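User: quick one, fold this
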Amino acid sequence: MYVNIGGSDSTGDGSIGNPYLTIPFALSTIIDASPTKRYAIIVGSGTFASNISLKANVEVRGANPIATTISGNVDINDASWTPAGNHRSGFQDCALLGSISFDFNATSSNEGKINLYNVRIGTAPTCTSFSPINQVTFQDCLFFNGMVQNGINMSLYSCEFVNGGTYQINSVSQSLSLCTAYGGGINGPVIFTYTAGQAINAVFLGFALGSTLALSGALNILSATSDSIPIRSAVSISGGAVLSLINDAAGVAYTPATPANWSVVPNNVQNALDEVASWNSGPWTPTFTSLTAVSSPTNVAGWYSRDSNVVTASFTVTFTGSAASTGSYSFDLPVTGTEFAAGTDLIGTVNFDNNDFSNAKIKAVPASIAGQVSFYPVIAGDADFSAFFQYSLV
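Assistant:
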């Protein structure tokens, strides 16, 4: 069925070649719409100012949201919604600029559902349930003045709320107030208010909140991905309401400022927190406080990390003096067992001038300063290499 500004309600027949002039007249000609026989009213370009009471099982479809404007008020106050049945109606590819009320309670519609696709919405729609079955779905829609939801199973797919309008969800007695939002976002306040009746339960998946979030009342839960939550100072939670993060920190990228501080360099916050949680008291960074050797070293550099019960350290010590000890020496100290026990031989492998000394031992000795431990390598056949270094475990 077709409606066009060049059509006629008196001589038109609703065909593409002889369209009606107004949407209400086209609706009046539909007397047998049902869940098994649905109608589409195809509306051409132009502005249509008549108020509309949308019938059940009828979709109004424009040319596009810029070309087709419905400036009259829209509601669903029609008796066709009352009988039992999976009634579905909606709007597509148009702009709705008048007041909008999808009130299933007013018509006692037990199974009524509304779907809007690619619609520009100039005022704040009010959506009210009669039963838990009532659904409203917005997909690829642009809201200019927020929305009010009383009950309803609401779905928002890639929808944007602009101009600072408020999205308000209120509890009702006849049904849960549900919302699932995928993508899109809002730059106005989001307010969920539970006062009595059935619970509010919402899920935001990548639905960005650019203003404030206020949750109040005991039966009030918002589960959201981390990119759906505003900064902490913009969030208000009271009366037993719950804000639950779905993805914790797993999806938040993280690049360490000093990768060498990590035994396994994390690439997101979750990995970083998990590694930190595995440290008994760390991370620990070596702070060198003293160093002695047969041939005194001129430079000491290195790193130290702790992963669970395995300690790994790597140091480069540069010696000057006798020919036998001149040069740079690197060694890795994978240490297991009792950690930092004074006088205990800790078996490890020492890489010394690119040679492995599998019988090398690292001996922990008491330190005079609390919180510090001294280690020195004991390598058979290398009496000159008797340097020890002491560092704090910070």
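User: anything notable?
Assistant: The mean pLDDT is 77.
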